[in-house]
Amino acid sequence: MTETSLLLTDLYELNMMQAYQRAGMTETAVFEFFVRRLPSNRNFLVAAGLEQVVDFLQDARFTQAEVDWLAAHQGFSAEFLDSLLALRFTGDVDAMPEGTIFFADEPILRVTAPLPEAQLFETRIINLLHFQTVVASKASRMALAAGDIQLSDFGLRRAHGAEAGLLAARASYLSGFAGSATVLAAQRFGVPVSGTMAHSFVQAHESEALAFVHFAESRREGVVLLIDTYDTEAAARKVVALAPRLTQQGLKLKGVRLDSGDLAEHARRVRAILDIGGLEQVQIFASGGLDEWALQRFVAEAAPIDACGIGTSLSTSQDVPALDCAYKLQEYAGQAKRKRSEGKATWPGRKQVYRRYDSNGVMTGDTLTLEGDTVVGEPLLQPAMRAGKSLETAPSLADSRAHATAERQRLPVRLRDLKPAEPYVAEVSHALRSLTAKVDHDQRASAES
């Protein structure tokens, strides 16, 4: 279960919220979440986590116990603490649908709400969007590299916490994985769940063959046997020898798993043994320290591997574990706002992203502009919440997964490569540049007055 406590935030959010209320600054604010720049080894990113953000905002409540703890430990005013008990999110959320491909400086989520509300939820919004976007982007690279090889998430045990492992299963399924080994992901999100056996199961038995029999008799359907505990090829021959007995008992052997050594070479040898033994239908499943580069090699070498389990490199996004992302104020009380900090300047105002396609439906370029500006292309930010409530038309995970698949198919060929490619064109409109110049002028005039 994802954490719901509103104390899962940074203290400065509560500090600012109290200060806003004391100053009477409760007019409408607009905040946007975006990534400042793509990592050097990412050609694109995939938006994910919106469903969890919407659920969190819709159900956001302070409990009496939480307010009592704040009263005892953090020195907030009684008036402010009383207001927390009545707090509900009343704003609007617009966002790119989950699975949408996006690029640097493009907002994937916009919150429009009274300033104290919009500020308070900053930390958890970033936390939920950032992690799943990181994993979904990693998983999408893997799906592109894998071709017809089916992928499954094996990352729970190496994930940075229980919630991370659960949400990694969801984000990877969204981005093209066939399923996960995480049981709760099946119960919570409907992600297909599958699993094999551990080396300890084989080691606990007097013989490898007996371990195979016991496991097959227990599972009966979809049996996948781990065959590299001792001698991979010898174990494959044992599987061939046991197959008639298993068939006679009505047990269906789905595959064998390889978890160590030169997986491509072992797969070739095992495939030959299985085929000679009449087990052409038995699949070969590989795992053990795999990433998108290994998947690309399997495809390039035509390794006879049908499916792969991906663990640490997925659930931690090992090469890019974090993005330079931000949730920044863009408008308050009807006035556009802009941060001008060196290296962290923002584009002001409520924004929209328009995407253009060629005659084959392939992405050709984006335009970042102001909401309401007339620009050629498809608007990417869509309504997700109104007046604090999610929309009845919210997509299911299956819908989002289908959208993510379609998005990958719309990528220019160069961006599908694992290596850095010529950047995608995401231009800034004249209207947005003009507003930026005006905001800068007004800020300087205000500072000089």
SSE layout and pairing:
Layout: H1 11-23, E1 28-35, E2 45-46, H2 50-59, H3 64-73, H4 78-86, E3 92-95, E4 101-102, E5 109-114, H5 115-120, H6 122-146, E6 150-153, H7 162-174, E7 179-180, H8 183-189, H9 199-203, H10 208-219, E8 223-226, H11 232-248, E9 253-258, H12 263-276, E10 283-287, H13 292-300, E11 307-310, H14 312-315, E12 325-332, E13 335-336, E14 351-357, E15 363-370, E16 378-379, E17 382-386, E18 389-390, H15 397-410, E19 426-428, H16 430-448
Parallel strand pairs: 6-7, 6-11, 8-9, 9-10, 10-11, 15-19
Antiparallel strand pairs: 1-5, 1-12, 2-4, 3-5, 3-17, 12-13, 14-15, 14-16, 17-18
Protein name: Nicotinate phosphoribosyltransferase
Domain Nicotinate phosphoribosyltransferase N-terminal: 7-129
Domain Nicotinate phosphoribosyltransferase C-terminal: 378-435
Could you walk me through the main structural features you see in this protein, from its secondary elements to its overall organization?
With 449 residues, the chain is α/β, with parallel strands linked by helices. It folds into 2 domains: 11-135 and 321-448, nicotinate phosphoribosyltransferase; 137-315, TIM Barrel (Alpha-Beta Barrel). It is built from 16 helices and 19 strands. The strands form 4 sheets. It has a 7-stranded antiparallel β-sheet with strand order 13-12-1-5-3-17-18. Strands 7-6-11-10-9-8 form a 6-stranded parallel β-sheet. It has a 4-stranded mixed β-sheet with strand order 16-14-15-19. It is elongated. The N and C termini lie far apart (53 Å). 41% of the residues are buried.
